[in-house]
Structure formats: structure tokens, C-alpha cells
Amino acid sequence: MTVQFAQRWREIEPLLDRLFDVPAADRADWLSRHCEDATLRALVEQALDNAPDIEALERGVAQWLPGLADAPVDAPPAIAGYRVHRFVGAGGMASVFEAERELPGGPQTVALKLLRIDVHDPDERRRFLREQRILARLQHPHIAQLLDAGFTPTGTPFLALEFVSGGDILAHCARARLGARERLALFVDVCAAVEYAHRNLIVHRDLKPGNVLVGADGRVKLVDFGIAKLLTGDGERTHTEARRLTRAYAAPEQFAGAAATTAIDVYALGVLLGELLGGTKPRTAEANASAFDDAALRRKLGADLHAIVREATRMEPMRRYATVAALREDIGRHLDGMPLQARADTFAYRLSTFAKRHAVAVVAGTAIALILAAATALGLYQWRLARDAARAAHAQALVAEGEARRADAVKSFLEGLFDSASPGATTSETAEELLARGRERADRDFAEQPALRVEILGLIGDLERRSGHAERAREPLEKAVALAKAQLGATDRRTLHAEYLIAKDIDELGRAREAMARLQSALDAFQAGPNRDSVEEVRALSWLAGLHERVGESALAIDAGEKSLALARRVLPHDSDALTEATMNFGWTLMDAGHADRAEPLLREVLARTREHLGARHPDVADAAAFLSWALIRLGRYGESEQLIREAIEIDAAAYTHPHPHVARHFNDLANVLKLEGKFAEASTYYEKAIAMNRALAPAAALDEAVCLGNLARVRFRQGAFAEAEAGLRDAIARSRSLLGADYGDNGRGHDQADLALILIARGRLDEARALADGALADARSRYRGAHPDIAYAETVEAELLAASGQAESAAVHAARAIATYAELADAGSERAVRAHLLFGDILQGLGRHGEAKPQFERALAATKADTPNPAALVARAAAGMARVEAALGNAAAARGYRAEAETALAAAPTEPSVDRDTAVRLVAGLAAQAKL
Amino acid sequence: MSIEPDITEFLARAAHGDAAAVDALIPKIYASLRQLARRQRAHEAAHTLETTALVHEAYLTLARQAGVEFTDRAHFYAYMGRVMRHLLIDRARRKNAQKRQAPDMTGEAAEGEVIDVLALDEALERLAALDPRLARVAELRLFAELSNPEIAEVVGVNTRTVERDWLKARTFLSGCLAAGD
By the CB < 8 Å criterion, does B2 face chain A? Predict the structure, then answer.
């Protein structure tokens, strides 16, 4: 009838021409009226709108496509020697079952893969068996071993592989909440496995998360080298039959059926890396440079890692990494850089650089570490940028190659310096020589290349400063700035960077105001130009904030800090070290300015970011935890604070095998909290531990040692051992003075003086105390503009002195000022604010102003009770004060209530020596005596 | 990736409507299309195939491969339609051969609504002999997934004519297929 329809088409066609003008519903009717030939009519009728095939014809090609690929084979296979347990899953090329293989030594669990490939002709079978033999040779800790292969009774080819119980790498990372560093570590293992396969001339060709598993032991295993095949010399054409490409992971040339090369695996690894770190697959592949040219992804990954991903996923195979090893090495370089970069300058550790300048000879090892850090921070990214530029821009090839050479020159320069230092050298001479040689070579080797010289001089100067030679740093840095301004202009990022470096140096030379003014004008000049929103601007702003705070301009400091952080959040990648640095520095600035409440969330963020980027057990996490603990102390959250520092110390224990200044610091931090909690004995133990460790690190930790000695003396003061406290604090002061010289003024001298004054007051040596207290107050007032915790503290000490001297009226004035300052800073809860309230209350009561005294005790009691956990002795002291004031006001019932509260608190207080406790006991006893009268 | 030097030339000629060039291209495009189809099969549920996306992908692949930008995408899709038709026929022939060799392995669940590609091809050949334009429209419609305006552009008639041609061609094919083999 087919023939018949076609044969009669000439008659049918004119009929149709008329028929299709009729509405579909009326066509049958129309036909019966206009077509007399019954056969013809039947032919047309059965082909019309309701015909069985019409719907299928309308569907078009889609109806056949499912059949283009073979139907999945999901039924459990029956293979001699195997017991199939369960269906695990099916992918594009295979169905996978968990099975047991009978072996003489007992059953072995295997992954049984039934391949959906056509192996019905003898050539295909031979090829399958040949490849299976090759794959069986692959033996690597990160490759699931091929154990067996063959054909099922129905002829389907199967592979038996080492069974990996675990999820794919993405799922694993998400579940285990792995940080970037841990993810990279896994990825490096993946690269190692692929590299090994490539050395054996096997290309995986289907790398994707589903083929990269992580076993229960947390180790990576690559599976499915099933489509890999022997790389032949001439690039044998792929047998497309066996291929089912994974859209996002297949290199562009794979879709074109190109020969399998290692470049295909490099591409897939790049995609995997992007997804592992950024959580996204490449955008739709366009015929441009890379599927990962994506600003959002760049922000997420950071410049280095983003550059690595892009390089691996270039559209043209020739422009990708030439080998997996090259990819892996870049990752390694990045990884090596991270901890060093993360140890960038922060205010928290500024003191130790001061100490270095004054007391420490830095060993070569430190200098080399700094050089490497700088090389990775500066070198890798720029080097890559330049190399990319050189490859990409044919038109600008000459310029770009010059850039690449420039960056390479910096790298090799640094490497040259590094090589010339004798390995394991530990004398300070070597480090000095190293940098001196660097200065000399910068002048000689780069005389004709000003931009390069700016970079090198800046690097050398910064290294000098960071290794404790701020004076020597000045000259190369000044040279770098002058050269940069002249050759690159004030709006160039490199100029701003050089200015930033010199501001740090001037600051360290003790001239914070000069540094501030200079950095401010450099920033103004830069911001007028076209290069805004750069990392250099973030760093400069962030440091400017610190400088403002140090010269007492808290409002300006907070403004600059806010700007730097906002800018950092806007322009820097999420895992940028500079962003973490800006967050930390702003948090620190807020802390210094007396705003612990605002600092706390920022420092918490720093801790979270550090954890995320470096893993939970990294020593930098310990530091970040310690910083946060400081803010919590000021907020009276002692329990949380103690917990955090204990965690930090735990991390330290695993991370450091030798005494380390950071560990000593964390001991000191823990002791600080313990002291506030009233656990004086335990606090002393930790101060002593810190002191011992600092001694082991002498002379590097000499200043830290002095600080700890001073802190220990303060515990003695609280314990009532005033003579010992005085001796200890005087020793600490003498050490700090000799270590810091003129810089002591900027670094805790005021506090030390005030605290020594308190001790002397307690010992009744008021004249000696007066000089100190007056000095501390004058210093604080001249130093800070506006409200500042240091001024409040100095006022409190002054009030204490005056009260002890019998000048109660004057004492009340100073105490009131202290209270007002704390109020302005919104600080109601810090230990010092509590003590100021208690003091003011006592002074007012001495003056018979009981009504005014009462709210002071009330606030002190409320604040100290709000501390978690509350320091019982101080609570008792405040409650007793409250009872006394109520008694004086004639509120006997209220007085009894507070007295009972004081007694309860006393019972809970540790029974170790404590001035607070003694005072509370004395007050309660006085009340008891009153009651008897 | 190595490209035979003539592929670029063929693509360029094909882009300008050279039928011989299309034929020469077919074996080369063939592999790429089948690969795409397989990939699609592996990743999508069987019934949600995006054929148009598939053809687009093939277009991009070929354009990239040869470094040629087709000035006229519709023409290119038309060639892809030709390729698709050949591909399906070839596969159907192979299936038939396999059925004879190993009947237990190829028990394809032949759904009633799926048209036998070989029968359809035969019907199309007959139609081409009678009315080449109708056959061309049907091929573009069936295998290249082109819309009526796109077909109109390729064939060089107006859209209205394409609509009418398709109805007629559809009736022809339906009539031939209904007769069975």
C-alpha cells in the first residue's frame, strides 16, 4: 500500500490542496462529498490528522534519540566466581554492583562494573581485553586497583575493581566541612594519581567527581580508568562507541572526537578544582580563553587559585598546563605560600617586631621564610598574570613578554638570594648578609628596569624591617618610593604599596604621626587616580586605621578601619588573606579604642575564616582564637574566653614541637582570664609556664617575658602580696624600658606606671605613688583625644591615690570622670569599670553621700554578676558594699539581703589569698558588728 | 587536535549551499553527533532529551573545530538534520544486524509510537522522487528540529507555504507508513 499511496500521489496532492483549506474537524465529511474514488478516499482518510503516526511525526527526532545510546544494564549479572550483593549505581558508561569475589584467602569485596560498550565484534573484544591488561598494571595508592575483567554469559564486558566505600570527593568535602587547604590536599592526591597514570601512558578521559571517591579512611581513590586507553604515538582516534562524555568535565576537543591526550585530563582536573573550591561548574563553554573566566569565581577562589583553574581549563589544549605535574606544582606553591602569607603583619603582633628591633638578632632561617613568603605572595600571582598576558596577546607579545620576564626576574632574584644562603645557617650574620647582598644586587642588576627595582627595593626594605632592622629598611624603602613616584606615578598600585611599606617602617621607628601623615597623603594621591579598589588600597587604609588609633585619634581610626573593611569585602576574594587581615586589624583597632562589643563579631569572623581557609588545626587558628578571647574578656565572658584559649593551647600542642613565642603568649592569655575569674593560683602557674617558655626562647621573647613578669606581679597584687608585687612589677618595668627604650612610651608604660602606683598605694607609699599616678594620667590625656579606656583607668588610679591621701573631694572628681568615660565608651561590664564603680561608691560613702553611692554599688554588682562565670570574690565585695550603703540609708531589710548575698558569694569563692575576698569579709564583719550594736 | 585540512573548506562550501560538500561532511559530523546523543542519553532521563540543544552543541563543536562561523545558522542546522537522518538509519540497520546475530542482547523495548526509521527513510526517498521540496521540508522538520520560519529561510519560500508543505508531506509519510511493511 506504500507503493500504492506514492503511485497515486499525483491524484492525492490536488485533493489535499483543497482539503487543507477545510477545518480539520470537517475534513472527513468534505472528503466523502468531494472524492468519488473509494480507494483514493480510503488512502487519504487513513493518512489524515487522526492517523496513528501523525503524533509521532510531529514529535520528530526526539522519539529516536533514547535508543541511540544502549539501554542500561541494571539487572544483577550472573558471573562465575562472583556473588553480587547490590546495585550501587549507573553512570553513562557502566552499571556498578557491589559484589564478593571468591578467593582462596576468603571473599574480597569488589566493585563490579558492567560496561555499556559494544563488544560484539572480535576486534572490539580483543581491544577490550588488551586495555584491561594495561589497566591492571596501574597500581597506585590513589587509584582503585583493577582486579579482574571478562565477559558475562550474555557477552557484556565487566571489570572488577577494588571497592571503595565512600562518597565522591565533592560530597565528602561538603560532609566533612573541609576547608580550602584540606580540599587542596585531596586534590593534590588526585593529581598524583593521574600523573602516575600518565607516566604509564594511560589517560583517564572521564575525570569527574563521580570518579574521584574518598574512602572511609579519608583517602582519595580514582576509579573508572575504564575508558582510558593506551596512548599510542600517533594519537589513535578515539572509539566513540564506548564514550559517554560528562558535559561539564569533558574538554572541548573531546566533543570533536579528537585523539585522547593528557590535556583532556588536565582540563577535567581544572574543572574539578574549580568545583571543589568554588562550588560551581564552568559556565557554558564559549570558544574563548577559558570556561572559568568569571569574576565571581575569581573573588571566591582568590587570584592565585583562579589563575590555576583558568590555566587548566583553557579551550585550546596547547595553552593548558603541559602536564598534570605542572598543575600540581602550582597548587603546591600556593599551599606553601598560605601559612606564611597568613602570618602577615597585624597589630596584634606589632609588639614583637618592636622587640626584635631592640633586642633580637633574627636568624637566617626567619629571613629565608620571610623571603619565600614574599616570593609567593608577590611572585606567583604576578608571574602568572604576566605569563598569561604573554600567551594571550599576540599583538602585544613583546610588551607582555617583557612583563613575564620582569616577573620571572623577581622570582629568580629571590631564589638566587635564597640559594646563596648556606642551608641551615643560624647566625644573624647570614641573614644580614643576605639582605645586604639583595640591596646591592637590586641596584646593580636592575639599574635599567625601574619598575622591577621598585619591587625589589620594597621587598628588601620590608624584609629588613620585619627581621628587626627598621633603620636599615628606611633607605631602600625611601629609594623605592622615590623611584616609584618618578617612574610609575602617585596613582600606581606599586607606588601605594611602597608608601605603605615605608609607613610601617616609620611607625616602627617610633614616629607614628609622621607615618600616618605620609600614608594619608599617599592614599589621597592614589585615590585621585584610576586604580582604586585594589588590595593595596585595602592594606594602606587598614594600616592607616591602626596609626590613627595609636596617635589617639580613635574616631578617625574607626572611620578608616570601617572603610578598609568595607572595601575589602567589596573587592577582595572571599578567602583573601588581605580581607582576613583587614577584618582582624579593624577588630583590633576597635578593641584598642575600647569597643570590645563591636570588635567581638569581627574577631569571631577572623577565627571562622582562618578555620575555613587553613583547617581547624592550623596554628593560625589558635592565634585567631586567642585574639577573640581578648575581646570576650573585656565583655566579661570569661568562661567562653577561657574555653577558646584552652582550645588554642590544644592546637599548639599538636602544631609546635618546640617552644614557640605564640604558645607562650597563649599561656599568658589563659592566665589573664584565670586571674579575672579569681583563680589566682592557676593563673600564676600559667604565667610561670609562659615565662619559662619565653626564657627558653631568649633573647627573641625577652619582651614577652617582661610582659608576663608584670602580669604575674599583678596577680600577686590581687593576692595581697604587695611587696612581691612591687618587686615583680619594677623588674618588668626595668626590662621593658631597656628593651623598648623610647618606644616604651607607646607600648604599655602608662599601664605599668598606673599599676605600680596602685601597689605603692596599697603599701602606703603615697608620695612615690603620686609621681607615677600623675605621670600616667598626664600621659593618657596627652595621648588620646576623646574618650579612651586608658584615660579612664588613669583617672581611677588618681582617684584611688587621692582617696588614700584623705583628699576625698578631689578623689570623687576623678572617679566621676573615670565613670563618665566608661559610660561614653558604653563599657559597663569590664573589670576595670566595675572597680571604678566600687571605688567611686566607697569615696562617696566616705563623704557621707550614701544616696549617690548606692547606684555605683548597684552597677558594680549587676555588672560583675553578669560575668560568666562571675568572679565570686568580687561579687561578694560588691554585695557587701551594697549592704553597707543600704544599712547607712537605714534600709535594714535590704542590707540583710545583700549581706546574705555577699556571704553566699564568699562561700563560693576560692579559699586562696585574695584582696577582694578579704575586703568583702571585712565589710561583712563590720555589718555584723553594726547589727549587734 | 588535528583537523583534516579539507574540513574547513567543506564547511565553508556547505555553508553556501553546496550539496556535494554536505555529503562529504556527513561522515565527519556523524561521529560528533552520535557522541553528543550518547552523552545526552547518559545524563538526561530518556524522555526529556533536548534535541535542539544537541544540535546547537554539534554546531558549536563543528564551528570550533573548523574555525568557521556559519553566516547562516539555519543552513547549518539543515545539514545537521541530514546527518541525523543518516545516523538514525545507520543505527537501525546495525540493530537489525545484531538482532540476527544475538537476539537475546538486543531486546529493545520497541514502543508503538516510535516510527521505524528505515520505513520512514524509504517513504522520504519516494517523496523526494515525486516532490523534492516536500521531502526537504519534511527532513528539516523531522531531523533538524527547525521551526517553520527557519525552514522557510532554508528552502527559500514563505512560512505559510512551509506550513502547507509540511501538512502534505506529513500526510504522504503517514499514508506510506500506515500501509506497513
Answer: yes
